[in-house]
Amino acid sequence: MEMSYKRTLTMVLCGGKGERLYPLTRDRAKPSVPFLGTYRIVDFSLSNALNSGLRRIALLTQYKSLSLERHILNGWNIFHAESGDYIISLPAQGRVSDHWYEGTADAVFQNIYTIQQENPETVLVLSGDHVYNADYRKLLRFFDETGADALIMTRTIPVAEASRFGVIGVDAESRIVEFLEKPKKPAAAPWDPAKSLISMGVYLFRTPVLIKALIKDARNPKSAHDFGRDIVPALIGSRRVFAYTFDDYWEDIGTIDAYWQANMAFLAPSPPALLKDPAWPVRTYKPQYPPTFVAGGDLRASILSAGCSLTDCRIVGSILGPGVRVEPGAEIVDSILFGDAVVRRGARLRKVIIDKGSVIPEGFEVGADADADARTFKISQTGIRVVPKGWTRE
User: Fold this and answer.
1) Which residues contact 120 (CB under 8 A, 6 or more apart)?
2) Residue 330 and residue 343: Cα distance in Å, rounded?
3) What is the pLDDT of residues 30-46, one digit of tens each?
4) Which of 117, 178, 222, 320 is deepest in the core (most CB within 10 A)?
5) DSSP 8-state assignment for residue 229
């Protein structure tokens, strides 16, 4: 018999607006926001699936998806049609209803004919906006061992941080007995009063169970059509729903501050091991840039992508995307620059995120005067300035 992952359809939710990441999501879907200069956020979920042997992958796209669609076409068009394997995009098509995707469960429900046509044994539902490495084969094995009808990938975090997530209660066998979406007072895990068990937004379903649940949910006018709020709680009482605990590196990049911190962690003396396993590569599309050129200056603890040009400048604790140009006398500290950004002579940046193609004028300063910066740029709760895509005063 084939391994169960050969009979699994993977559906990646890529339709969210990512409003808390604005203005980085002003012109692109959240999964296509750059990460560590070279990658897009969606690359991590797709690489996990590919490395886990999953070869039938559908991305459910919607909001400002052009950047994402182009990235998938350029970097993830990797299967021959004859193989029967694929990575495809499924935008809202009006096949089941005449509205856009209205919730995570509705996005899958609107593609219920695709599920029925593919006829997989199991359906794996992923979020396209998390950064982590996970072998989904372990999830599938646990699914088989427990005889589960549904499975949620979970992790433990401090109780004080859990109200942003779906909080899960389990019994001694890891069977889920309670699921509360973003509770004001999260319940503690049975084994540690200081920790809560939260959902990672990764769901595995036995296909007949999922289809029946989606149809029932779609007929409920009071439902938010969300996996966490509606589908999973409805299954707990009548089906075998289990939690699979994952405690390796995982980041939910939901805000500007979380995004900046997740990037900066890779510049620390002991960075996450996310990219260090040659047996678990993270795939992406790498545009054709020449090698990076550095002419003098001071460069410390930073990540440089291909095609950068740096001349007699100071760059400390920063991440530069492809094709970034920095002119003499400029200083960049604790900042993230997306592709093709230009920092003119003598400009100074501190704790700034600069979106693609922006031009910082000669002698301009961002990150020193909060009042002055606030008149032009968004400033996060911890003081990260965000320069929107294509911004310039030249």
Assistant:
1) 7, 8, 9, 56, 207
2) 7
3) 999 999 999 999 999 99
4) 320
5) I
